[in-house]
Amino acid sequence: MFKKILIANRGEIACRVMKTAKSMGIATVAVYSDADARAMHVEMADEAVHIGPPAAAESYLVIEKIIDACKQTGAEAVHPGYGFLSENAKFAHALKDAGLVFIGPNPRAIEAMGDKIESKKFANAAKVNTVPGYLGEIHDPEEAVKIADDIGYPVMIKASAGGGGKGMRIAHSAGEVEEGFNSAKSEAKSSFGDDRVFIEKFIVNPRHIEIQVMGDKHGNVIHLGERECSIQRRNQKVIEEAPSPLLDEKTRAEMGAQAIALAKAVDYDTAGTVEFVAGQDKSFYFLEMNTRLQVEHPVTELITGIDLVEQMIRSAYGDKLAIKQKDVKLDGWAIESRVYAEDPYRGFLPSTGRLTKYRPPAESRDDDTGITVRNDTGVYEGGEISIFYDPMIAKLCTHAADRSAAIAAMSGALDAFYIDGIQHNIPFVSAIMAHPRWQSGELSTSFIADEFPDGFNGADLTDTVSFNIATVAVVCDHVLNQRKREISGQMGGRPVQFSAMRSVKVADDWVDAEIIGCEGKLFRLSVSGREAAVECQWSPGEPVWQGRINGNAVSVQVRAQMNGFRMSHGGSEVDALVYTAREAELVKLMPVKLPPDTSKKLLCPMPGLVVSIDVNEGQDVKAGEKLAVVEAMKMENILRAERDGKVQVIHAEPGANLAVDAVIMEFE
Questions:
Q1: Could you count the other beta carbons within 10 Å of the beta carbon of residue 318?
Q2: Active-site option among 87, 226, 288, 631
Q3: What is the pLDDT of residue 176?
Q4: How many CB atoms lie within 10 A of CB 642?
Q5: What is the model's pLDDT at position 499?
Q6: Does residue 594 lie within any of the structural domains?
Q7: Domain around 156
Q8: How confident is the model at residue 492 (pLDDT cuts 50, 70, 90)?
Q9: 269 with 214, same domain?
Q10: Distance between CA 451 and CA 150 in Å, rounded?
Q11: Which of 26, 172, 308, 666 gives the lowest tally of CB atoms within 10 Å of its CB?
Q12: Is 433 a member of any domain?
């Protein structure tokens, strides 16, 4: 077996690969850019080599620097993770020429399947049913529009060397094709060093289902079941699960057989994924093959008990696959939630900065309930979320006996996942977990667009969530008051009154509550006329309240503020303000403070780089017209006029790095 391997990646996937390598007794080497000098993957590795500036094109994508790092450290093999160079055939060839082993597929498989255009041609020749589209290289927007007109709208513009939602656009008209073509090419170039794109028909109301395959260098290939990846936003997966609630055994076997046949046709010899677009009637079409480890591989590992990274390393070393198809059993249900550094309340715009607090739920395996919580991450408290790389913070996974139990476990784990310093999408993912359509398994790739057409403004505050928040707010307020009365030297101190009445304002609703009794960490309350028996171990300053309310396990994120708390629970993030009866009377008389008027200003919605300013001072603009483009985390964001107006003054220029809410321009 290898003595030392280098991981040509960063973040959570680099850490993930290192965990398995260390368990196999293999030493690890990290590479890092200036921006990642203090990153977790650097700390985890046995050795680390600096490879250049923050921009991936000058560090993680430079093949020569990766090979030099191997030579410096004596690494025998390279695991590419996903993204970056993971599907780059030139990289695989260069490693071979340098006498190094690529822990990935053979170059022929990458060339045949890793390139999205070539994979379509190959699949057609192999009689695999594919989505209608144009597979040739497209040179300019005019050609793209003509092709899209011939195929019929809507169409998908996709980066040939792409993945992870980068370089992808859906277009419903010629105008959207022209604009999407340029954006897709630009994103593809910056993310993969390859700006080629192709166009295919976009199937309405589809499901995204993929088959995990695993091969070796001896001609053996098996599949490990499917993953459903239909919950997507801007073609970026948000939630994945295994197995799929759509498939039956017959369809699973058919998709698996097709995936194996395609893999064998290119002598596939490692972990890979054959992706399908599926209709609600269980019909399916080959979409593409990802010749790498997928982001969502943990859910497959959880339901099969097979470590995919270990299998990749063993295959690269030349070991024969020890697992037969008959040995693969799907056990229970697993769900993965991708936790991103983005603000769901502001159109999911990227968020960067320091993680002032990072407290994920503890990884665990409960033998009594059969519930597993797993968190693959590459960040730590005090670390930075950079503008230069993907905004993923962590991949939170739960595994249970069935889908409903896995969802319930995920809801609890998300409630306990505390992050401060940046914005994140945990409230949004929590809201999906509570959504009836998600819980029913009636999914499609348009789920988020269908169910959140106006964006995300927080989950509906249900009776149960409101009751839990009000209950926890009263208990926390009581605990804080107890501590205050223990401070010496206070004037007019008096014993805590357990029967004190409270009025709690949860969002815009008022709730009457009363503490009936308290003994240690056990409380009896009346909240809106309902009794609440509460057990908790919360102490002031702890960011997450965890305990039981009427016997049910509850986690609520708690941020202290004047007169109460900012609380997150069940996808709802609201203020819970606790008052005495007299205080509540006075508060209700106070005028509401209105936010400042920014309607005549274009504010930068996220920290980022100004790519272009597309209007001039004094220019009249129409609603929907492009004003500027700001790039953050490898994604270009087009800022448009919300209404007709006239540009009065422009404060920013291309190349400027702006903070969130910086004024880009003002209107008359």
A1: 12
A2: 288
A3: 94
A4: 12
A5: 46
A6: no
A7: 132-201
A8: low
A9: yes
A10: 31
A11: 172
A12: yes
